[in-house]
Amino acid sequence: MTMHKLKTTGALAAVVLAAGLGLTACGGSSTASNSNCTPKHQGIQTVAQGKLTIGVIDIPPFSSYNSGKPNGIDIAIVNKIAKDECLEPVYQQATYADAVQSISGGNIDLALGTIDATEKRLKAVDFSASTYLDGMGIASKTGATTVAELEKMKKVGTIDGYLWVEDLRKILGDKLVTYPSSVELKADFDAGRLDADVDAYGVQVLQFKDAAGVTVALSNEKPDPRVGAITQAPEAAFPMTKGNTSLKEALDAGIEAQREDGTIAKLLTDAGLSEGLGKVAEKQYVVPAS
């Protein structure tokens, strides 16, 4: 869930990672990588011949560099596409702050980690087809699932910078308290100073996985017309080299195939997330520039 900090610029809680290998932009195509493998799409251009170089942002359960052994939902999606296209996936650490720059600079082919498609980012990179929604979660001890239920509470916390903050502020007024990160937000909720914790849904599912008496709901499943980020949720996708149509066609086809055969839905539910997170719009929603 792209820490919606970038939500306006588009990304989730800042995570640590470094820029990587200095590879040249049009290093080669997949056709020469393995003579015993036939790619589903011929002539895919990548920064290094026969390889798909990928920046990984740490935001479990979607993606984790994991000390050089990447795992997560996004990793599984990309690994399948790379295999189908006879490309060797090469992973390196990335952050929301440097991912787009690394792509536009020709260092990596794409990045993953719940990165929202936004107008601002589209100036520097292209985006693959959407993988899943970047949903708003509600964690509470009352089983709240809607904004209307938040209105009945005394104090509700969220993170400053998310797309839903201003709409919630209009609805909740002084009841809404904002925090710089998920750490401070969860600490106050755990201490009983908040009745609800509103954060990126995917992050909350892991945060409260073993928390007795706490439920986490995907608010997008019961949209409130007063909150734009719920009725029109940001969509995560893979930012990639601008103008690289050969790679975009392969990524789009691979993602759409995994959506249609239920692979993405299963990856989400296996991670403990709602299948509803995979219900992206027929036409990709791009977050407008603020």
UniProtKB/TrEMBL annotation:
Keywords on record: Signal
Keyword Signal included in the entry's annotation: yes
SMART domains, per database record: PBPb (SM00062)
A Pfam family recorded for this sequence: SBP_bac_3
Domain of life: Bacteria
Alphabetized InterPro entries for the sequence: Solute-binding_3/MltF_N
Annotated Solute-binding protein family 3/N-terminal domain residues: 51-275
Stored SUPFAM superfamilies: Periplasmic binding protein-like II
Transmembrane portions of the chain: none
Protein name (record): Polar amino acid transport system substrate-binding protein
Source organism: Arthrobacter cupressi
